[in-house]
Each structure stands twice: as structure tokens, then as C-alpha cells.
Amino acid sequence: MTVTRLRTQASLYLEDTTVAGMTPLIDQFGRVHDNLRVSVTDRCNLRCFYCMPLENVQYLPRPELLKFEEICRFVEIMVRNCGVSKIRLTGGEPLVRQSLESLIEKLLQIPGLDDLSLTTNGILLNDQADTLFAAGLRRLNISLDTLDPQRFQQIARREALDKVLAGITAAQNAGFEPIKLNAVAIRGLTEHDLCAFARMSRQTGVQVRFIEYMPLDAERNWEREKVLSEQEMMDILQNEFGDLKPVPGNSESSPARDYQFADGLGRIGFISSVTRPFCAHCNRFRLTSDGKIRNCLFSQEETDVRSLLRSGAEETEIVAVVRQSILNKAEGHEINSAKFLQPLRPMHSIGG
User: Fold this and answer.
1) Residues 194, 145: contact at Cβ < 8 Å?
2) Three-class SS of residue 162?
3) Cβ(276)–Cβ(295) under 8 Å?
4) Distance between CA atoms of 303 and 192, rounded to whole angstroms?
5) Measured distance CA(169)–CA(130) in Å, rounded
């Protein structure tokens, strides 16, 4: 879709929604932002090498984290004034934040919020799945890069694969639907897991999404040569299981391109930020656990809203600050450009 067409669609949307007293968040390229990712903590019980340092992790002091009441107020403002309709709770590992179910219950009471989901590494899910479901949560993304215990320890630098698998089972038993597994694909390390995950999808019904390895690691060891591309992954899977067919109804704003095997068993997705950037259709922005707005995962700049929330600022002031942040959003992340700069924050501190 061209920038001109995006701007035209955004203009039409703007006309429709402004009449109703709500003006969407639109950047200078016409992209409408209705999807907010909210990090509730920067703490994590794993040390995945593509995300965190192994030792001496510098966590935020507890008072710097947004309180649940502050998160709810911000989300309510965004939903009522800006048309945000989708929220994903992230971390760090969000399940290490105590009483998360109370936040979920409060968010689900906000009129106009159509979709609430959560991303977790699954380690604590076996104990919390029923509680989260009872609070009203229905959709989960579980980060799991391998089904091999040794590779899990190599990647996550902890031994917890059994706990994650137990968490997936607990989530299925609780009634979560859909359950999506997010697996980072790394050349020379996870090729053998592609078919294993496909078999898991075909046998259990969970959806698997392979994510191209991105430069977001705290130790800054990312190498382009380690990126396992979408096309390479598709070739491996199709050689083993036959053709992958696009799933009808894929949204242009979705980061994943979803496929199904020709026999109808198993759904596979690819998030190809490196080889197939989807920046032109991005509808997402982020609220970090310490109350900073990031208009792009790879942004070099942040906008503080915590100080506004804690000083009792009017809604109009908060909305204006967020609108300006979205308006300043770059056209793309430029991973494939010589101008690319890795974010100063590692992934666990930004929020998934």
C-alpha cells in the first residue's frame, strides 16, 4: 500500500471518528495507531541472550514503575480520546508482577477496549493460568524458542523448559484461545526446531510464529549473518510437510504473515522484521514500565507521560503529548540501512 493511499484512508477515518468526538492517532505517513503495548515490569526470570545480559542486570527501582491505577488511567485516556482498541501486556516477564489479574480486571472494564492479550515466557503460567482466565483474559502469546532442553538452556541461560511446557498445557486446560507460541529463529542454532514446532502445532492446535532475529540484545552481539529468513524457514517446513498456504484475512497491520499447511493441520506465522519489514502498515506504539511512550520498537527517543500522570495533568495535555510522539514517528526502523542505530534500551526494558 502506498503512502498516499495510507494517508487517504487515514483522512477518511479521521473524518468519521472526529464527528464522534474521538480523533485517532495518525503519524505523518498516514498510519493509524490503535494498538498499544503496555509493559508492566522490566524484570524477568530468564536471561535470553537476544534480550538481556547474563549478569548485573540493572532493574528499575520499584517506585519508578507505573502503578496499576496509572496504567489504567492512561489506557482509558487513549481509548476514549484516540481510538486505541487493542492492548497487549508485556514485560520483562509480566507474570512476575504481583496481582496482575487485578490490572486485567480493571482494563477489561474500560468501554471501547476490544482486545486484551498478554505475552509471557510461560514459566509461571502453570500456577497462574486459571487466575488469569478468571480475571477475563482470553488470549496468550508464549515466548518459546526451542523444544530441546539443551538449546533452551543455551538461549535462555536457565533450565525451565519443563515449566514452560507445563504452562502451555495449563493454559489450554484453562480455556485460552488462541494460544500463540513466539519463537526467535537464529541461524546455526534453531533450524532443528522449525519442524518440531510445526509438528506441535499440527498435533495440539497451538499457533506458532517464527520471529527473525533482531538487533535488540543488551550485549550487542547481534549479527546479520545469524538471521534465519522467512524464505529459508518456509523452504525447510515445506520440504518436510508440503505447501504452506496463506491464511485468508491476514491484516496488513499485523506483524505476522500467517500460513496453514495444505492439509489444514497446523498454523504457522512469520514475523520478518529484517527481510520483510512491515513498517509501512505499523499500527503499534509502546508504554514502557516506567511510563515512557515509544512510537517504534527501535526508536531512539521516548516521551515521558509518567510525570504527567503523577502531577495530575489534564487529559488534553496527555493526549497532546502522545499525539506529538506519534506524529514524530519515523517511516521505518532502517535495520537494512547504514543509518540504523540499535536502541539504547535492551528488549526487556522496552517491552515486547
Assistant:
1) no
2) helix
3) no
4) 41
5) 12
Class of domain 3-12+25-350: alpha beta
Q: Are 212 and 227 in contact (CB under 8 A)?
A: yes
- Residue 182 CA: distances (Å) to CA of 75, 79, 190, 191, 239: 25, 27, 13, 15, 22
Whose cell is 524484570? That residue is 43
The H-assigned helical ranges of the chain are 3-19, 68-82, 100-107, 125-134, 149-156, 161-174, 191-204, 230-241, 306-310, 315-327, 347-350
262 sits in the region (left: phi over 0; alpha: psi -120 to 50; else beta) called: alpha
Cell numbers for 16: 468519521
The 10 Å CB-count burial string (b at 16+, else e) for 287-305 is bbbbbbbbbbbbbeebbeb
Cell reading at 80? 476514549
Distance from first CA to last CA of the chain, Å, rounded? 26
| pLDDT tens, residue order, the chain (352 aa) | 444 444 444 444 444 444 346 899 999 999 999 999 999 999 999 999 988 888 888 899 999 999 999 999 999 999 999 999 999 999 999 999 999 999 999 999 999 999 999 999 999 999 999 999 999 999 999 999 999 999 999 999 999 999 999 999 999 999 999 999 999 999 999 999 999 999 999 999 999 999 999 877 667 777 888 999 999 999 999 999 999 999 987 777 788 899 999 999 999 999 998 888 888 999 999 999 999 999 998 888 999 999 999 999 999 999 999 999 999 999 988 776 677 777 777 778 888 7
Distance in angstroms (rounded) separating the CA atoms of residues 259 and 262: 9
Asked if 273 and 216 count as a contact pair (C-beta separation under 8 A), the reply is no
Residue with cell 481509548: 79
pTM of the model: 0.91
Tell me which amino acid residue 271 is. Answer: I
Q: 326 and 33 in contact (C-beta within 8 Å)?
A: yes
DSSP SS3 for 24: coil
Nearest to 83 by CA among 324, 333, 256, 322: 322
